[in-house]
Amino acid sequence: MAGSTGSGVEWHMRPPNAKNPIVFFDVTIGNIPAGRIKMELFADIAPKTAENFRQFCTGEYRKAGLPIGYKGCQFHRVIKDFMIQAGDFLKGDGSGCVSIYGHKFEDENFAAKHTGPGLLSMVYISLLEMYTS
């Protein structure tokens, strides 16, 4: 089956797992509400990555007592009919790296593939690392 994993799972059509957390982004364009993006985090597949993302969504992660996370973050890259990128609340351009575990944590696995629209990925490499490796 094209676009499927070895297990035959079409990830974009996978039924929700009630044990996985659901998070959301409330999107505004300027000051005008544009809607809510709801995302299931695949904690059953990548628990550390899902927990990192979840805490940045909820504001639970704190540094010096202040919440650190995605609230107020901008989409720094938009490619029509393909993808949007957001989440760099350090530099705003995709090169800022931080996690709840420190600067970096290892990739958990590559089990889930982009088999269709609506899937979420976490890019975790700084531009500097990408071009100097």
Overview of this protein structure:
The structure is a single chain. With 133 residues, the protein is an alpha+beta fold. The protein has one domain (11-132): Beta Barrel (Cyclophilin), CATH 2.40.100. It has 2 helices and 6 strands. It has helices at 47-58, 127-132, and strands at 22-29, 32-40, 62-63, 66-67, 75-79, 83-86. Strands 1-2 form a two-stranded antiparallel sheet. It has a two-stranded antiparallel sheet with strand order 3-4. The longest helix has 12 residues, at 47-58. It is globular. Mean pLDDT is 81; it is low at 1-6. Residues 24-133 form the PPIase cyclophilin-type domain. It is an enzyme of class 5 (isomerase). Keywords: Isomerase, Rotamase.
**Unreliable stretches:** 1-6
Number of strands: 6
Q: What's the CATH H-level superfamily name?
A: Cyclophilin-like
Helix content: 10-25%
**Main beta sheet, described?**
2 strands, antiparallel
- Percent strand: 15-25%
Order of helices and strands: EEHEEEEH
Number of helices: 2
The overall average pLDDT, rounded, is 81
Terminal CA distance = 35 Å
What structural class should be given to the helix and strand makeup? Answer: alpha+beta
Using only C-alpha atoms, the radius of gyration works out to 16 Å
Draw up the topology in text.
Blueprint: E1 22-29, E2 32-40, H1 47-58, E3 62-63, E4 66-67, E5 75-79, E6 83-86, H2 127-132
Antiparallel strand pairs: 1-2, 3-4, 5-6
